[in-house]
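Lab notebook, bench 4. Continuing the backlog of folding jobs that were queued last week. Each job is logged with the same field layout so the records can be merged later without manual cleanup. Today's entry covers Ubiquitin carboxyl-terminal hydrolase, a 806-residue chain. Filled in by technician R.K.

JOB TYPE: sequence-to-structure
TARGET: Ubiquitin carboxyl-terminal hydrolase
LENGTH: 806
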Amino acid sequence: MELLRSNLSRVRIPEPTNRIYKQECCISFDTPRSEGGLFIDMNSFLAFGKDYVGWNYEKTGNPVYLHIKQTKKPVPEDRPLKKPTLLAIGMEGGFDNHEPEYEESHNIVILPEFVSLSFPSVELPEKVRLAVDSILMAEGAERKEQVAAWTADKKQVSAYAMNLQQIDNGVIVPPSGWKCAKCDKTENLWLNLTDGMTLCGRRNWDGSGGNNHAIEHYKETYYPLAVKLGTITADLEGADVFSYPEDDSVEDPLLAQHLAFFGIDFSSLQKTEMTTAEKELDQNTNFDWNRIQESGEEVEPLFGPGYTGLVNLGNSCYLASIMQVVFSTHSFYSRYYKNLNLKHAFETAPADPTLDLNTQLTKLGHGLLSGKYSVPAKEKDDIANVTASHSKQEGIPPRMFKTLIAASHPEFSSTRQQDALEFFLHLLDQVERANAGKPELDPSRSFKFGIEERLECSSGKVAYNKRVDYILSLNIPLHEATNKEQLEAFQKLKAERGSDREVSSDEIVRPRVPLEACLANFSAPEEVHEFYSTELKTKTTAIKTAGLTSFPDYLVLHMRKFVMEAGWVPKKLDVYIDVPDIIDISHMRSKGLQPGEELLPEAVPDSEESSKPSANEDIVSQLAAMGFNYLHCQKAAINTSNSGVEEAMNWLLSHMDDPDIDEPISQEVRTAEVLLSFVDQSKIDTLVSFGFQEEVARKALKSSGGDIEKATDWIFSHPEVSESLDMDATSSNAQSTADAGLPDGGGRYKLIGLVSHIGTSTQCGHYVAHVYKDGRWVIFNDNKVGASIKPPKDMGYLYFFERMNS
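JOB STATUS: finished
OUTPUT FIELD FOLLOWS
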């Protein structure tokens, strides 16, 4: 006790603003249920496993710890099942996930000798008792993230519900026998709550669903709310109400009143139709879903180093699939596992290692690759008192990593499904920033490469534009399908059957497009209309071709399976991609300015006509026809240099929330640019003295209005700028210099991983990873890891290739 009293100055009573970790070690995946329990530093409130608490003592000198140990309670044979009252798992009122109950013990432990004192005890100093009580009563930092992960997103009350106008046109909706007013559909029917029209829902990407009559009715009438017939029961909260202008499922507090207007007595209705969420879940059990997850196959579970699963934290499969593939690359394996042990990472980390990305990636790398947590899950039969090993593993929950990587991206902080591609790019961006100043350590560079676009106008002169990227995004040319005869026969079969009989999954024929055709499509010449030629001083048609200036260590191919149809309706291409195990892209290397080629002259600064922004009217009109704001369409065309509808669409979707999106396109844009070009040279010199390149400093000051502090922040948040400035070189001699910082080598690659997706959009459904490891394909499906029997190589969303040594 005297030892504890002599260290009271190192004990703090936590304040409400303190982050308290008590569920997981900050540098490993140990928990209070681990064999050694968990030690909470009573000064910093960080938690450590038994093997790591000594490191914290050596680093900080903090000797007093609260030790928490949880031991499983015996399960009574007659344990009653509780009826859920909340759409949640593992929470009070939620679904019973048959989690065992644990009893918790607490002790005060003093390092370095691990002297243990029982808690509670009246002999303990009051300060220690107060500190421990505060720690135990506080909601842990990990738990705050966990709660949101399991609770379903609550529907918002529609802005149109309270003042909904209903038209008395004599419509009385019968309790059954519904049919679409415009076709013969008798399922997936929606009742418009304004005029009582019963119409079919949207057509799904696979051809199932309705015929879009309900949404077409909204576009004609602007009547906002519809309820799905068959989902209405005495419990109105379960009814599926959709708001077309809000484009989401919503809550209608006056639904009973709105239904009664059309003679519907909801108390007598029984549920016969699935809600939108249930329908989506049902679609995920189809043939493709089973193929991607290899359901029905006798998959051999795998354990040991490199075969650790990741626990799904609530729609986090996008993160799990990307991290499994990323940590199978030599660059991430070496940076965060082979060449960096946990102790060194912790010693060099800031005071709070939970906020340091390199530390958390090292923690995740060691968790995935060491094999420590990749063991068969044990389940004890308390009645027979026997412990048995199961073929599944528990996996590790990447909570701290997800919290940290999502801190700078609000969407990844949510529990909604996200686009795996977007997460991959965000990850590499954050990794690059975390390794700023140490490019030799940066594993993200192994994915980076240069792209060069060549534009030749009708004058015969050329222009070259260069940029760097992490992924090669490929359109899928459906006209290059290799099974056209089978497709034509399938279409004929569907036409013969009509809408009366649906085609079974076994009969469906999908286009098969070779990957080579997708790569060739990327490099193929493309016409660019309305191109302003500085040689001809007028608009003309140019021919654009593209190639790679360097070949990365790891080439990531993104298949553009999601396209926009008219009316801004996303559609998923139902297509298979035939992907070989080895590809050769040597022919895709760009050659730069060739002998005899002449560059287009630079634009004359004082030529108002040539410099004034001008949008391609064809691009603008096509976007506007999809329902986009006309001004926004003009800006999208201008900001993508009129390169095409799809490029403009992508720009528009990612800039719709820009604060200046509604500002008019100024005729004085060029004037403003000229004014901005005059930057105080003394400020440039100041930034150069910090070690920045002069051109980078100039660009940063232009972008920040001449403010040095903002310019410095801008440089650190745009690490790619120095590379992109280098990439402006247009001669073949300069090309080698421009690409000197990028990895490069031969053009032969082998397939090492793929991320597959099933669902109607990237924001729903499920992601699964397949990785080629130790001479075989392995499936990573959240916490399930097994030897793959039939890897779905033709169904990938992202393909990962590793450059082969020549």
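OBSERVATION: The longest strand covers residues 538-548.
SIGNED: R.K.
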